[in-house]
Each structure stands twice: as C-alpha cells, then as structure tokens.
From TrEMBL:
<dbReference type="InterPro" id="IPR006366">
    <property type="entry name" value="CobA/CysG_C"/>
</dbReference>
<keyword id="KW-0949">S-adenosyl-L-methionine</keyword>
<feature type="domain" description="Tetrapyrrole methylase">
    <location>
        <begin position="12"/>
        <end position="221"/>
    </location>
</feature>
<keyword id="KW-0627">Porphyrin biosynthesis</keyword>
<dbReference type="InterPro" id="IPR014777">
    <property type="entry name" value="4pyrrole_Mease_sub1"/>
</dbReference>
<keyword id="KW-0808">Transferase</keyword>
<dbReference type="InterPro" id="IPR000878">
    <property type="entry name" value="4pyrrol_Mease"/>
</dbReference>
<dbReference type="InterPro" id="IPR003043">
    <property type="entry name" value="Uropor_MeTrfase_CS"/>
</dbReference>
<comment type="pathway">
    <text>Cofactor biosynthesis; adenosylcobalamin biosynthesis; precorrin-2 from uroporphyrinogen III: step 1/1.</text>
</comment>
<keyword id="KW-0489">Methyltransferase</keyword>
<dbReference type="GO" id="GO:0004851">
    <property type="term" value="F:uroporphyrin-III C-methyltransferase activity"/>
</dbReference>
<dbReference type="Pfam" id="PF00590">
    <property type="entry name" value="TP_methylase"/>
</dbReference>
<dbReference type="InterPro" id="IPR050161">
    <property type="entry name" value="Siro_Cobalamin_biosynth"/>
</dbReference>
<dbReference type="GO" id="GO:0009236">
    <property type="term" value="P:cobalamin biosynthetic process"/>
</dbReference>
<keyword id="KW-0169">Cobalamin biosynthesis</keyword>
<comment type="pathway">
    <text>Porphyrin-containing compound metabolism; siroheme biosynthesis; precorrin-2 from uroporphyrinogen III: step 1/1.</text>
</comment>
<dbReference type="InterPro" id="IPR035996">
    <property type="entry name" value="4pyrrol_Methylase_sf"/>
</dbReference>
C-alpha cells in the first residue's frame, strides 16, 4: 500500500478509523482521506471537528446507530456506500475507533468487494487503546498481564459463552458495549471462575469531554454502573492492571459514604 492516498483515483471507498473521539488522535492518513472525500458516510459519535476536515462541498451522511435503534440497517448502509461509489465518488466511510474492532468494517469491505469496487482501509486508534491510555491504564504489563482479549458485551446468548480463559491472573479483558449488561457480565465472569475481588475499570466517554474513569471490584461492577449512572459509550476493563491506573476508586468512595450514612443513623 502506498504511503499517501492518491486523490486522483475516483470511484472508491476508503474505510477510515476516526479513533475514540479526540480529533487529535486521527492519523495523518485519515486526515488525507477526509480531505479527498466527495461523500462522508459517518457514525453518530464522530466529533464535529473531524467532519469539518472534509471539503465544504463533500456530502455528509449520518448512519448513526444506537442500542436497539438503527438509522439504517447494515445492509442499507452497504448499499448506500456502493451506490455513491458507482457514481465515481470518493466515499469515506468514517467509523469510530478502528473499523475492524467491533465496527462491522469487515462486512462493509465484503460488500464493496462483492460489487467489484476498490476499497482500502485506514486503521484508527481503537477505543480500548485510546481510553486506556487516557486513564494511564496499561493493558499489558510485565508484572501483571501478558495477554489481552476483546469481547462484545452485547453478544447474544451471554450465559452460553465460555469466558473462563479470558480474564484472571496475568490476563486483561476489555469489554466493548457492556454498560447495559454490566451486572450480567460480572455474574458470568464470576461463574466462569474469575475472583469477585478482581479489579475492574469503567472508562466512560474516553478522550471526549466529560470523560470519567472509575474502578471497583468485579462483584461491584453492576451496582457501580447503576449508582454512577454510567452511559454509553464506555468500555470495561477487567484485570490486575486496573490497579495501576488513575481511575477513581468508586468502591472506596461508596464504602465511605455508606459508613457516614450509618453513623448519621446511629
């Protein structure tokens, strides 16, 4: 693959990772792709400053997705991209994080290839990497973790999944899209043998305005998400590396508040 994108090649798709939110985390190649775009088909969580990099004349089309509600189904998004490319346009499909990590980028590449059209991929800083870095949370560490796994927390049939080898001593587990099922995830991990006192972190809106980094213990994950009113987008990190982060210890604060309440009631 060439180092720089060729703006003269018409009628193609460039699948671009926009990173976890902060426009400063865009790659040089991502910026070049945006500057060459005739059409930008983008996710809903893309920062407006990123969209402004595209030419004023570029058409911007939002295909925002939310839990249980999609502006367009995936098949319609694929068809939309193909239709614009067939007009000779340079279509930038702009996706949060990295297109190939829970971004359905593989499906879109398949659709474009099936239509016989050219496509290239510009990787982005994934949510796991960007949010963990902001929280000073190393996903690997010589003394604590030599393996990292990424899973989707919204997967169907969670109780039937075997997560027994994904978290525990010497391993880090990163869970995307797990806020709504946080309590079930904690129960699942403990049922599969992960200790209830395993440290966990919740990284909410990482690299964006209003970001929060919170940590507690696995047994308290569901209650913490509820009492802190955590909202998506957020990722959950499970493992000893969590103790190295700057994440606020919400279990300690909750315990202190509970003790103060007990003293008032005495």
């Amino acid at each position: 693959m060439a180092t720089l994108l060729d703006p003269t090649q018409r009628g193609r798709v460039i699948l671009v990772g926009a990173g976890p939110g902060d426009p400063g985390l865009l790659t040089v190649k991502a910026v070049e792709a945006l500057r060459s775009a005739d059409v930008v088909v983008h996710d809903g969580l893309i920062d407006s400053r990123v969209l402004e990099i595209a030419p004023e004349t570029a058409q911007r089309i939002s295909v925002a997705k939310q839990r249980a509600r999609h502006t367009l189904p995936q098949e319609a998004i694929n068809a939309l991209i193909v239709a614009h490319v067939k007009t000779g346009a340079i279509v930038v499909r702009l996706k949060g994080g990295d297109p190939f990590i829970f971004g359905r980028g593989g499906e879109e590449v398949e659709a474009v290839r099936a239509a016989g059209l050219p496509v290239e991929v510009v990787p982005g800083v994934s949510a796991a990497l960007g949010c963990a870095a902001e929280a000073m949370l190393p996903l690997t560490h010589r003394d604590h973790s030599s393996a990292v796994s990424f899973v989707a927390g919204q997967c169907k049939g969670l109780s039937e999944q075997d997560w027994s080898g994904l978290a525990g001593q010497g391993r880090t587990l990163v869970i995307y899209m797990g806020v709504a099922t946080a309590a079930d995830i904690a129960d699942k991990l403990m049922a599969d043998g992960v200790a209830p006192d395993m440290p966990v972190a919740v990284l909410e809106r990482g690299t964006c305005q209003g970001a929060r980094a919170m940590r507690t213990l696995l047994a308290d994950l569901g209650p913490m998400v509820a009492r802190e009113e955590v909202k998506s987008p957020a990722i959950i990190v499970v493992g000893e590396v969590v103790t190295l982060s700057d994440a606020e210890n919400k279990l300690a604060r909750f315990a202190a508040q509970a003790e103060a309440l007990r003293e008032l009631e005495a």
